Amino acid sequence: MARVFNFSAGPAMLPAEVLQQAREEMLDWRGSGMCVAEMSHRGKEFVSIAEQAEADLRELLAIPENYRVLFLQGGASSQFAMVPMNLLRGGDKADYLNTGSWSKKAIAEARRFCTVGIAASTEDARFTRAPAQDELALDPEAAYVHYTPNETIEGVEFPSVPETGDKPLAADMSSTLLSRPLEVSRYGVIYAGAQKNLGPAGLTVVIVREELIGQPLAGTPTLFDYRTHAQTDSLYNTPPTYAWYLAGLVFQWLKRRGGLAAMAAINARKAEALYAAIDASGFYANPVEPACRSWMNVPFTLADPELDRTFLTEAKAAGLVTLEGHRSVGGMRASIYNAMPEEGVRALIAFMREFERRYG
Ligand SMILES: *Cc1c(COP(=O)(O)O)cnc(C)c1O
């Protein structure tokens, strides 16, 4: 079996242990005689899988009692609409922090529902940093504040959680959730598409404070109302059962590895090693302010972009795949989520050094 180190931003690598367990359980999940994908979502087998996954996620993130965890479809992109539909609660304004490509998409979608205030923007700095607390110009009439803690494309991460007073804070954590411990109580809603750091595509996790549920915008479709899913334990209609199951296996893998504090230590080591290698070279460069560099997505450029193709071809031959940067920014990007082993980062660094020696 030849597994590669896959640096894709998403869908991303899954832990080999999890895939092996899924393979073992594929034809007969624990004596049920069925694959999880064949089970009724209302049967006791699947309900036990769903409940275990939620319990494990709650334990990993120490999610307080007054938060609901929803297992939905539609991707993080559908949350760009569901957040305003559910969080405006009679208001007609919301504040957004504009810090990169994904916040721009969230802003564009929110504009369909309300007046969007840009409480801070780092566009002038070409999204190479996160705004400081004293740069935030919050509107007292805004119903909530939305931000993107980790900008997957630009590789920019907020070093701390913005203070928003009594305004609910909404966070698109698609590319950072479960990379380290989190103080859930600081947020009104946290959402993430699973395919970066949680599991396979098709599942979207939403963690929302109970009191924010139940006042949807007039005309909100049933499936876009958080209440629909909160009242039915995310079983209103058929959920993405197999993706939910696989995410549950990832949560158990994280627990076996020592939880999120242990993952944070590993992720910090991986990111530090890669940024140190980039900074130590005159050949590779990363434009992001050091304090705001993402632990999960590391974009970098080569001194001569003419060498990009060669770099990608030779990296692939060495078992290091999907290193091309997002089509909107070019260059390279190494996404190093939880499932990327330290060995994979070491292999990438060794490859980069050797490439520089030969072409630099
Ligand atoms: C990938 C990503 C999205 C889009 O997720 P989908 O599940 O494809 O809709 C949104 N926000 C961030 C920060 C992302 O990384």
Task: Explain the overall architecture.
The structure is a single chain. The chain has 360 residues and is an alpha/beta fold. It folds into two domains: 17-256, Aspartate Aminotransferase, domain 2, CATH 3.40.640.10; 259-359, Aspartate Aminotransferase, domain 1 (Alpha-Beta Complex). Helix content is 34%, strand content 16%. It has nine helices and 14 strands. It has helices spanning 16-24, 44-61, 75-87, 101-110, 226-231, 241-256, 259-280, 308-317, 342-359, and strands at residues 5-6, 67-72, 93-98, 115-121, 145-147, 150-151, 156-157, 169-172, 189-193, 204-209, 284-285, 297-302, 320-321, 332-335. The chain has a seven-stranded mixed sheet. A three-stranded antiparallel sheet has the order 11-12-14, covered by helices on one side. Strands 1-13 form a two-stranded parallel ribbon. Helix 2 (44-61) crosses helix 6. The longest helix has 22 residues, at 259-280. It starts with a strand and ends with a helix. Pyridoxal-5'-phosphate (PLP) binds at residues 10, 75-77, 102, 148, 152, 172, 174-175, 193, 196.
